[in-house]
TrEMBL record:
HAMAP family documented for this protein: Eis
Binding positions (acetyl-CoA): 83-85, 91-96, 119-120
Subunit structure: Homohexamer; trimer of dimers.
Any single Pfam family the record assigns to this protein: Acetyltransf_9
Protein name: Putative acetyltransferase
Organism this protein belongs to: Saccharothrix texasensis
Record GO terms (molecular function): aminoglycoside N-acetyltransferase activity
Family that this chain belongs to: Belongs to the acetyltransferase Eis family.
Keywords for this protein: Acyltransferase, Transferase
Every N-acetyltransferase domain range: 4-153
Record keyword Acyltransferase present: yes
């Protein structure tokens, strides 16, 4: 018997839930104009509330999405967010009860994977979430950067809704090319681009292979197909590095079809006048920005942090959906306290995965498997850190060979 209960919220309760969540982050309630954007991000059946004494005391929700896995499959995915418990009700099991309800509901609805961004690292491991992708933050001293190469295509600024429309189309086409990327739901764009663009002067520049000039609106490519975009904003300051806060260009979102488009987009931002510093947050680990520059020390990696916390809701479906390299098979033993139907032995081979009764050669909790699932961390590293048990000592190396990926997983979408 608990002193609170968990319910699916209805339309009349979303704003209370939003205000409650913001309160747990020490923010005041959203004013009406902001709420108009946030309202769109509540989907029927996806928001939960915890109630006690007739009041809402906790909430969490998810957004409908898809997630790309190694080999190119794209799986039903829930992006979990707005998790909060009112300060006078914390550490009494409210989040645990909401997690239990949400994990069960998501799995029943057919989602194979859930991911989230964690406010604190101590919270989500117990519920089966593990760090599955990481990102980097870069800072470039633009005046020292001296790019080694010149653009080969055309990058044009596209104003307003036309820019957002092109960016959305390119994002949907390009992002699933990397494991760990997620589909963005419609409200993501309105909250993160449309609202912010209006308030903070966000610009979108679109790249095409053509070298001709475009019309004044920039909405259509002069010739050649669009193959990448960058969204950015400039925070004015001083462009003299010795004088106060430097004028900083922030790269908010950058996607390209190939290396040529990628380099042109970076060269474009590096070429914008009266900017002293370029900062980019949430970029992939393997992005070779330093190699574009004459002075590689002009680019500093200022952070590398956990990005995706991933939960395998349906372990058999998730293991079956990704591909494996040619290597000797291994039998994994999975433990899962919250979704016990996932627990058991799985034989992983280059040709696929089957559930077996064999004794496991490598035993791990579902959050640890989540960290290795997209290839971000090796089983050997996890064994060294004592995050898994290897009754068969050769098993971690065999699992590494099977799960190896050539490109580090990355999401690139903050929510
Ligand atoms: C995806 C997102 O939205 S991230 C945003 C998350 N929200 C926030 O950070 C807002 C501020 N914090 C909160 O609202 C709450 O503290 C929450 C939601 C993080 C936790 O809610 P609670 O109801 O207190 O969690 P609950 O009581 O179920 O805790 C379960 C266990 O997790 C532990 N735990 C929960 N939160 C934390 C934390 N922030 N740090 C360390 N341990 C924690 C508890 O100690 C407990 O451990 P135990 O089982 O060993 O006793």
């Amino acid at each position: 018997m608990t002193d609170h209960d968990i319910r699916v919220l209805d339309d009349s309760q979303y704003r209370t839930a939003h205000t409650l969540f913001r309160g747990t982050l020490h923010h005041t309630a959203a004013p009406d104009d902001q709420w108009a954007f946030a309202r769109e991000s509540y989907d029927e059946g996806r928001a939960f509330g915890a109630f006690a004494d007739g009041e809402m005391i906790g909430t969490l929700q998810s957004f409908p999405s898809r997630l790309a896995v190694p080999g190119g499959a794209v799986l039903p995915h829930a992006a979990v967010s707005r998790v909060g418990v009112r300060a006078d009700w914390t550490r009494r099991g409210v989040l645990s009860a909401m997690q239990r309800a949400q994990l069960r509901a998501l799995r029943s609805a057919g989602d194979v994977i859930a991911t989230l961004r964690a406010s604190e690292t101590a919270i989500y491991g117990r519920y089966g979430y593990g760090v599955a992708t990481r990102y980097r933050a870069l800072r470039i001293d633009r005046l020292k950067a001296a790019p080694r190469t010149r653009p080969v295509g055309r990058v044009r600024l596209v104003e307003g809704e036309a820019g957002e429309r092109i960016a959305r189309g390119l994002f949907d086409e390009l992002s699933p090319g990397r494991a760990g990327t997620i589909a963005r739901w419609p409200a993501w764009w309105s909250l993160n681009v449309r609202r912010v663009a209006a308030e903070e002067n966000v610009k979108i520049a679109v790249r095409s292979a053509a070298s001709g000039t475009s019309g004044t609106s920039g909405a259509s490519a002069a010739s050649g197909e669009d193959d990448g975009y960058v969204a950015f904003k400039v925070v004015p300051g001083s462009h003299d590095p010795n004088e106060g806060k430097p004028t900083t260009l922030m790269v908010l979102d950058l996607w390209a079809r190939d290396a040529e488009a990628w380099a042109d987009l970076w060269l474009f931002v590096l070429g914008i006048d009266l900017v002293a510093e370029i900062s980019a947050f949430g970029r992939p680990l393997d992005e070779p920005v330093q190699w574009l520059l004459g002075d590689r020390r002009a680019c500093r990696i200022v952070d590398e942090a956990d990005e995706t916390w991933l939960r395998l809701l349906d372990v058999p479906a998730a293991l079956a959906a990704r591909t494996y390299r040619q290597a000797e098979p291994v039998v994994l033993g999975v433990r899962d306290a919250y979704l016990p139907e996932n627990a058991g032995s799985y034989r992983v081979t280059a040709d696929g995965v089957t559930r077996v009764d064999d004794a496991p050669e490598l035993v791990l909790d579902v959050d640890v498997l989540a960290s290795a699932y997209l290839g971000d961390v090796s089983f050997t590293s996890l064994a060294a850190a004592r995050r898994l048990d290897a009754p068969t000592p050769t098993a971690p190396a065999r699992a590494d060979a099977l799960f190896a990926v050539s490109t580090p997983p990355w999401s690139g979408t903050y929510f």
